[in-house]
Design a protein that fits this description.
By secondary structure, this protein is an alpha/beta fold. The protein has eleven helices and 17 strands. The protein folds into two domains: 2-146 and 287-336, Medium-chain alcohol dehydrogenases, catalytic domain (Quinone Oxidoreductase, Chain A, domain 1, Alpha-Beta Complex); 149-283, NAD(P)-binding Rossmann-like Domain (Rossmann fold), CATH 3.40.50. Strands 3, 4, 5, 8, 9, 16 and 17 form a seven-stranded mixed sheet that branches. It has a six-stranded parallel sheet with strand order 12-11-10-13-14-15, sandwiched between helices.
Amino acid sequence: MKGIVFLGDRKLEVRDFPDPAPGPRDVVVQMKASGMCGSDLPPYRSERPLAVVRGHEPCGVVVARGSAVSEDEAPIDQRVMIHHYSGCGLCKYCRVGYSQMCITGKHLVYGATANGGHAEYMTVTPSMLVPLDDALSFEQGASISCGTGTAFDALRRLDVSGRDTLAIYGQGPVGLSATILARAMGARVIAVDFSPERRKLASDFGADKVIDPAADEPVAAIKDLTHGEGATTTLDCTGNPDARANAVKSAAPWGRVCFVGEGNTATFNVSPDIIHKQLTIYGSWTFSSVGQAECAQFIIDHGIDLNPLLTHRFTLNDAEGAYQLFDTQTTGKGVFVPG
């Protein structure tokens, strides 16, 4: 089979691997869609090569299972999303579907520390399978498998509803997903991004206001739009230190703030920015396997169309150009599909 490997310094290779054969507790999934995520960009840009197959937004069809996997656990031909983590399976976090928080510290991240979905096949464990309803395409399932699912869980942590104004910093695939989902939850959305292409997408997806931080200081602009108070909820999807600080500064008193963008750090003036405003600050790390299924059901129940989010489709042989384009940070979701 073919799979995409990052070589370092924005170079990659479509490499040949042996077709997988399942071990006793393995399941082999034929990939039908594998999404590109903003968190793929730091390892793509890194100097360090990584020998694993990339891609942590996998979606496909069960084609084989090991001798110790039952029919109920992994029916052949079942359409599935993949929760891209595995752990010990026994600790309290694994048992509630948060295997990325496995107490043993031995969890695997598929597409980073184990082979992921940018390939023709992927070998997983039964607990990683999340059934995909026929109402959703494989491409939509791939989006839910990280970017859209991450946005959904963060919005639930923030308890977003129609009473809220939500300021979203960053309109990449996660931020755009948050814009779509927050509008379905009834919130007023203010979208912040440097890219005119992504601001346009945010407007198309229902953002009430968009802000270019190169033209308008975002904290002041958000306060101007909220009677001088700030947004009741803010979400940083960038991991950028300035955006994180602005997410805190632009939150209203008793506001709720959530960070999902990985990496970097941030500096706050704790007393005026946090304590005196009595803020609640959350960190949200992707989602559980249960939350992934709940996100998919929310999208079905609310009639949300994720297809406009999926702005680019590629085959594995297009990988070099696909990541060069995604690296510009001007697009929506890119997804690899069979050629």
